[in-house]
Input
Amino acid sequence: MLTQWPTYRILLPPALLASALFALPTSADEPPALILSEILADPAAWPDAQGEFLELGHPGIDSARLDGVAISVDGQSFPLGPLLLGPSDCLLICRDSAAYARAGIACARGWAGMSLVNGRPLEVTLSWAGGNFHVTAPASRPGTSWENTWDATAGYAAFGPSLAGRTGGDSATPGARNSRSALAAGRDLALAGIEVAGSIVRVTVENRGSGPPPRSWVALRLDADWDGISEATIDSVPLDSAGTYPAALEFRIPTGARGRASASLGPDENPGNDVMAAAFEPGGGPLAFGAFQAVGQEGAPEWVEIRNITSASGGTGRRIALSLATVDAMALGAKAGFLDPGERIVLASDTAAFRARYGPIKANVMRPEPWRALRNTGDTLVLRLAGAAVDTLSWGPIKPGAAAAGNEELPTEAGWSLSGRTAFPEAPLDVEVQAPAGADYVLRAFSLEGDIVKEIGRGGAGRRMHTWDGRGAGGRALPRGAYVLCLTFGDGWTRKRAIVAGER
Output
């Protein structure tokens, strides 16, 4: 096991970093902030005006705001405007966004004046304050899109024909991580896990290729206080190509640090599995879900509440920038502003209907664009801040539970009690749930990435005891580490607790 002790340094003043992410200098070992990931200049299934597209990709390890970014093709220039692009994400620029919307493909920007010349290479430049990415895209072939292989050793400038055909004869995979880089590389190291345990961040690396792994490194970046990368530290650990994998690395977090730990691996042949992030914050995350209404009722739209809980566990309250937050892939953006300790914001599918139903409230009410309808048959929302999952909210088609037996008095308030803070096969955790009359609940365990690992139990009014042995669904083994126990009632009342669980 390798142990690396980070060296901490402030890169830039907070105000400068918050306003201009792309002003950061890029070293030769770091990926560019933005690349051209795919281009279709000569569609076969549709006319040029409907089918041409450009796709941009983000190989970096931080969510990137694209304000001030422009794309130029053969001298034509187009500003992207306010957009947020997560690590390894892609976005589509279409000549006719309506045509792609009818095909069920999300087009982030419509560029009505775009005209991609056929039959010859195209010069494409992405520019922003302090940096740019330039590439010569291959000459078009009818019905074929060219995909960037996301190969770091080629400077992210190697293109090949798409490996996924589409109905009507076009070969393209618009709006998604491209098919070429999704192939298993012959020499591929991958990040398999990241977890925070006390003052230690543990990163697991495995070899998913068929050949010897390349000469690589793992870098850990700590973003403190969640205010936009106010204090960033970078530390790297070299990986031995002759080493044994999977391998575990440990990084120590400085005392009092709070925020996000993001690990990146490189250089590598498959960047699609080289970035992971986890939150480190005493008592959970700086933001948390509050009440919600998943099923729109008469006069009441769908809505969900988010709170700043930085001072809830006795810690230091801090102002949180919501421009770095996403809910169910909905970016809140700059209009969401900031949340001070104890404040809340309500996201609603219809803000006017919300205000008409509930009247004035002491909270900002906004509608992210576009709004993603909450699925009424059951859903799990993941609240992310700067790319790391900080809270989850789950509900489902809860079957009515049995009433309390005999003359047992029903609880007057919803609640729970736990026998401890650990859940292992050799020492299971007991959870007693108290549900008042008419209340149904579901008890689940989540990973820090927001995935459900086990539904522990569900029921109705009364007191019930549930036991979790730290195993996942079907009795599968879970790696020992931090998990989130979530108790959710049908009316939106939710409580969460961090638990150490799993198997050795």
Summary: The mean pLDDT is 75.
